[in-house]
Amino acid sequence: MATLITASGADFAAALPDGGKLAGLDVGTRTIGLAVCDAGWSFAGPAETIRRTKFTDDLEQLLTFVTVQRIAGLVVGLPLNMDGSDSPRTQSTRAFARNLGPLGLPVLLWDERWSTQAVERAMIAADVSRAKRADAVDKLAAAHILQGAIDALANLPRAH
Known about the structure:
By secondary structure, the protein is an alpha/beta fold. It has 5 helices and 6 strands.
């Protein structure tokens, strides 16, 4: 059976009837920001940043992460254009999501148009130095993406 990749929160939730911890991914060209939420899908927090190399190495690092964290599903930020249309980065992210198949986890593609900007603004407002912002932005953007998704998923009916 193929791994579910969907933009539908309802389909994603149906693939995880018992809930479980989720990981959020902010996929960039140089890094992948990772975040984790609790099994009850209440709160998300930043976890780590993977420096991208070749995909097989990236996948191995992700496999280790999802195994250690006991992740049940993935929420991947989808970088749509401001008008909601696809861009070359959107297509690249969709291909990345398809290549996550060996992890065997359902994938929710989540609109991330404002995530990095929101995180950057919040860190600037908190007077975080430029160097510290650079180190944290990817995993914080992943947490922002994941929190948005679980907030929406919380309003969907789930079997318990």
